Amino acid sequence: MTQTASRNTRPESEDPQTLVETLAREARLAQRQLAAMTSAQRAAALHLAADRLEAAAPAILTANARDIAAGEARGLAKAMIDRLALDEARLAGIAAAVRAVADLPDPVGQVIDQSEQPNGLRFQRIRVPVGTIGIIYESRPNVTADAATLCVRAGNAVLLRGGSEAVFSNRAIHAALVEGLVEGGVPAEAVQLIPTQDRAAVGAMLGAAGLIDMIVPRGGKSLVARVQADARVPVLAHLDGINHTYIHAAADPVMAQDIALNAKLRRTGICGAMETLLVDADYPKAAELVAALIDKGCEVRGDERIRLLDDRVIPASANDWDTEYLDAVLSVAMVDGLDAALAHIARHSSGHTDAIVTSDDAAAERFLTEVDSAIVMHNASSQFADGGEFGLGAEIGIATGRLHARGPVALEGLTTYKWQVRGQGQTRP
Amino acid sequence: MTQTASRNTRPESEDPQTLVETLAREARLAQRQLAAMTSAQRAAALHLAADRLEAAAPAILTANARDIAAGEARGLAKAMIDRLALDEARLAGIAAAVRAVADLPDPVGQVIDQSEQPNGLRFQRIRVPVGTIGIIYESRPNVTADAATLCVRAGNAVLLRGGSEAVFSNRAIHAALVEGLVEGGVPAEAVQLIPTQDRAAVGAMLGAAGLIDMIVPRGGKSLVARVQADARVPVLAHLDGINHTYIHAAADPVMAQDIALNAKLRRTGICGAMETLLVDADYPKAAELVAALIDKGCEVRGDERIRLLDDRVIPASANDWDTEYLDAVLSVAMVDGLDAALAHIARHSSGHTDAIVTSDDAAAERFLTEVDSAIVMHNASSQFADGGEFGLGAEIGIATGRLHARGPVALEGLTTYKWQVRGQGQTRP
C-alpha cells in the first residue's frame, strides 16, 4: 500500500520508459511476496477481488458510460462500442470468471518429475511462476480482470496496459480488483495498470527484457504484429489463424458437412474459425458440401476443380490460400489424397488449428502426427480451439510459437519450473 | 543427396543472408522427413554416424592438425589450442557420446497428459521436435557432433555455425557424421554446417525468425551476450553463472568445508562453479572455512566482517558481488540469517545455481522454495550443475532464461508439444 501511495504522488512528468521500469521493478518485488503465499491464500484473495468487483458495479458502470460517451463522440465503430460496453450481467460474468479461475487447481509447486542418481542426489523439477507478465490489450475491459486473475492464480505479477477507449472502465475494474486482492494479502504492486496512455509505454514494456518475463498481446492483428516485431521480451501469441479442414475421401458426408459449416460459420470472427477447406478429389459429395456452404451465406473462393462443382464459386487467387478472412468467406481447394493435403497445409497453415474429417483411422493418425500445428483435430470443428473447450478453465491466449507453450495457454503456460536438488554433502569427483 | 550436391555447386558469391535462409529452408523440409522417421530409425542412423566418425579418424585428425597449425601461426593462446586439439582418444570419446545419445529414451511422441471432455472430445498433448535449431559455437570441434546428435535424436534439423579456428576439423566431423546419417535414412539437409566463415552468417541466423526456431550459443560470455542482444529467434543460454553457496548457522562444518572447496576449486572455469560464498554470522567455523579456502590457493575477497577472520582476505569492492571470476577467486560475505542470505541472492544471483548447506531441513526447504534460480541445491556442490550429473544423459546447454526450459537442457528441451484432439463429429454449440 505504501508503494501505491508513492505511485499516486509520482510526478506527471516522468517519462514512460522510466515509469514502466519503475513499475516493473515494484512488480518483481511484489511477485516474490505473491509466490510465497500459499495456493489457498491466493485463491481466497481472488474471491475477495470478485466480491469487490460486484460491490463496485455502480462505479464501474459509471466509468464505462464515460468511456462509451467518449467513444461515441470520437465516432468509434458500433462493433467497438459493443466490445467496450458493460452492464450488470456482463459484470456478473466477469466476477464469476474470477471465481472460476480462483477455484482452478494451482499448478505452482507441482512436481513435474523426480529422480535419484547413484550418488544419492535427488532431483525434482517443480513448477514455479514465470514471474512478471505484461498484458497489452485493446478495447474489451473484461481482459483487465481475466488476465490479472490468471496471472495471480499462478503466482505472477502483472503489468496491464489496456486500450485508451476503455481507460476509465479499466481503472475502475483494476481499482476494485486490487482492493480485494490487498484485503487478501496480495501486495498492490503485484497487479498494476500502467497509468499513462502514452504509446511510448507500450514500447517500454516490449523492451523491458529482464524486468518483464513474458508479454501476452490480446487484440487485433496489427497489435499482435507490432508486439511480435518490436518485443525484446518473449511473446506468447498468435498472429493468424489460417486453419484448414481436410475432408478426406473416407469422410462421412453428414459429419463432413456439419463440421465444415460449424468450423466456418458458427462464429466467423474468432481465431479458431476455418479459413481454408481442402476437399479430397475422391470425396464423393464435394458438390453438395460446396453448395451447402454457399446456401448458408458463405462466399466460396475455389480453385479450378472446385469451380466446376458450382457456378456460384468465385475464382481463388494465389493470396487466398494465405488469407485469414475472419468473415463468411472461405477458400476451397481440391487435393489429390492425404499427401497433397499435408503438403498444402505445411505450406499455408499458420500453425494454429488444422483438422481432418475421415472414418479412416490410419489416415487420421497420419494427419495428427504429421501436421505440425499447435492443435490438430480429427472429426471435430476447429471452433473448439479454446482453452475453456479444452478443459483448461480459462485461457490467457492461444500461442502459435513453438517454444514454452502452444495452443490454448492457461495456468500451466504461466508457470515455468526450477530444479530442486537435495544432497547429503555430495561433492563432485 | 541432390540438395547436398546443389549446395556444393552454389556460387561463392551468394551473400550470407541468402545462403543462411536457403539452408534453413532446406533444413525445415528435411526436418519433416526426420520427424516422420521412427525413434529406432533415428537411433540407428546415429549409430551409423558414430561408426563413420571412427572410420574417418585419419581424415579428421589431418584436418585438425591443419587447424592447429593455422592457430599456432596466428598465435592462438595455448588454452585455445588445447580446446581445439583432437587425438584418437578424444575422437573415440566423441563417437561414444554419439552412441550414448542415440541410446537415450526418445522424448518425441511421449504423451504429456490427456483428458476427455463431457462432449466426448479427447485431448492429448504429445511431444514433438522444436523444429530447426541453430547452434553457434566456438573452438571445441566436439560440439559439431554433440549438438547435432542431440538435435537429431529429438527429431530436429540443425544448422551448425562453428568457430573459424576449427573450420577444417568441423568440416571433417560434419562430413563423417552426415555420411552415417544419410546411410541411416536421414536427409543430409537435416544437419548442415554453415559453409562460410563470414560473420554476417551469424547475424543472418540470429535474424531468421520463422526459419530457425531456437538458437543455442555455446561459447564464451561475449558470444552469448552478442547472441542474446541481437537474436530475433528465441535463445536458450546462460550468460553468467554467479552462483552462491550459503553456509547456514546449522551447517555441518566438515560438510560445509568439503562443499565450499569443491564448489569453488574442483574446476574454476565452469559455469557451475561457486562465485560467492555467504557465511551466516552464527556459523561457528567461519574462520576455519575462510582459512581452508585460502590455504588451497583461493583468493578470498571479503566484506568487513570476513576480513576480521583472516589477515589474508582482500577487501571486496561493490563489483565483486556481481562478478563471475571463473578462476580461483571468491567473494565472501557474512550474512545475518536466512532472510539476509535470500535477499543477497535475490539481488546478485544470475539465476543459474544457488546452494544452501545446513542440517536444518526447514531452512533448507525455505531456501529451495524461495530462491528463484534455475537450480537450487541443498547440501551439494554447485559443480553438479550439469546435464550428465542430473541423469539427462547429455546437455545442449544450461539455460537461465525463465521460459521453455531452465537449468541443464537435454532432449526434452529440444522438444515442444502439440495438442491432438480426437472427436466423433463434434461441432461447437
From TrEMBL, chains A, B:
GO terms for biological process: L-proline biosynthetic process. The gene is proA. It comes from Erythrobacter sanguineus. Its main location: cytoplasm. GO terms for cellular component: cytoplasm. NCBIfam families: PRK00197.1, proA. Residues 19-283 form the Aldehyde dehydrogenase domain. It is found in: Cytoplasm. This is Gamma-glutamyl phosphate reductase.
